[in-house]
Design a protein that fits this description.
Layout: E1 2-6, E2 31-36, E3 47-50, E4 55-61, E5 74-80, H1 82-85, H2 96-101, E6 106-111, E7 116-122, E8 127-132, E9 137-141
Antiparallel strand pairs: 1-2, 3-4, 4-5, 5-6, 7-8, 8-9
Amino acid sequence: MIHHFVLLPNPWFGADEPPSENNVPYNTIPVVRRLLGSPVRLFSTYHMALGSRGTAVWIDSHTDFGGGDGARGQRLAGSCASELLDADDDELYDDLNEMASSMDASVFGYSENDEWTRVAVDEEEGRIAIGYLDGTILLNEYA
């Protein structure tokens, strides 16, 4: 399970003053925005990248390859959080569990081996890059 937290802006932050212990730009208590289903397998590689416009992509474990022993496998998944960025602060506290369960992830690809190590997203150019153990970089383009 992937837990997506946000730090809400501090409404009393004074932008004309330097940040300090008494003048912080964000509230210090994270708020759960959504929960995303993600298989858990010990010692597997996980990585996540966040885009500047609300896209999140990640590598996590995936073991549903039929006939395998379930000890290997990865998936590239993602989700767009732009609807969360546009929400009113008042809405953030209203029934977060309902909001969390209503947002699903999209799966973009699978690997039968545990060879992916890093992921990056470039929303402006429409690209997702995947880094491999051997240094290879796979560049995916999307519209």
